[in-house]
Amino acid sequence: MDLGIAGRTALVGGASKGLGYGCAEALVREGVNVVVMARGAEALDAAARQLQAVAATAPGKPFVKHAAADITTPEGRAAAFALHADFDIVVTNAGGPPPGDFHDWDREAWIKALDANMLTPIELIKATVDGMAARGFGRIVNITSSSVKAPIDILGLSNGARSGLTGFVAGVARTGLAAKGVTLNNLLPGAFDTDRLKGTLVGAAKKTGQDIDAIRASRQKSIPAGRFGTAAEFGAICAFLCSMHAGYITGQNVLADGGAYPGTY
Predict the structure, then answer these.
(1) For residues 18 and 27, what is the distance between their CA atoms, to the nearest angstrom?
(2) Residue 99 reports pLDDT greater than 80
(3) Mean pLDDT over residues 166-170, rounded?
């Protein structure tokens, strides 16, 4: 299927590895120009080289630009817009806050979580959505978490911050933007084989005293798909939500979790 977005330009956060990289690679394969951001310069440089290799064989040979900066800060966002001014696609992804016990989180921990996982996506939406509407096309995909549907006890910071973003997006998506060709959706990953998952498993092992390999095996067994997801398949879902074919999908929370969520709705 031709997704119809070759020649568009996307901003992808947290793209040096994991799900952010998966999204960036999927978009590049479709001929989308990308500006990728992450805090770690070395990992981002390596990711950019990999994406440039993909771009060399992609439709139109799209460009790949990158900047090592913290997109949760005004300076980091300015660095992104210095590389390209008008984005057709924005994939927000700043990495989740650490797991733990809510008794241990002070105000600073909460503010940091809100800045990264709620306020930064809102700032990026505010900075791009009007231009998208004026040009008649725009796709915003926020990488959130399956925890907004089924909260995870040790991820309270994430549960709270991401749920706030979810409510905000539900309202903004219904302000007439879809009629102007602009959609806003959240993409909710379940258990994907990333560094983030490894950190969650370590946290669970510390809390329960169980062996981490046993926790990993048990977690996989609990997923109807019988495995963890891959960054590549997550990226493919993201690319579809960014496509010309997804213009009738907006204000939605798209859950990708191998069937782990037990609810009907």
Answers:
(1) 15
(2) no
(3) 96
Q: For residue 182, give the nearest of 248, 254, 252, 253 by alpha carbon.
A: 248
β-strands 138-143, 182-189 pairing: parallel
Owner of token pair 């290799």:
53
99: which 2 tokens?
A: 């797991």
Distance CA(210)–CA(186), nearest Å, equals 33
Q: Write out the E strands in the chain.
A: 9-12, 33-38, 64-68, 89-92, 138-143, 182-189, 253-256
Closest CA to 242 of 162, 181, 154: 181
Torsion of CA 174, 175, 180, 183, to 10 degrees: -40
Lowest mean pLDDT among 71-85, 195-209, 210-224, 237-251: 195-209
Q: In the numeric block, which tokens belong to residue 11?
A: 């901003």
- The number of C-alpha atoms within 13 Å of 192 and in the hemisphere containing its C-beta is 26
172-191 residue pLDDT tens: 999 999 999 999 999 999 99
For residue 75, what are its two tokens? 């300076």
First to last CA, the chain: 28
CB neighbour burial string for 256-265, b if at least 16 within 10 angstroms, e if fewer: bbbebeeeee
C-alpha triplet 22, 144, 17: angle, nearest 5°: 30
Helix (H) or strand (E) holding 200: helix 195-208
- Distance in angstroms (rounded) separating the CA atoms of residues 260 and 256: 9
pTM over 0.90: yes
* Range with lowest mean pLDDT among 13-22, 104-113, 248-257: 104-113
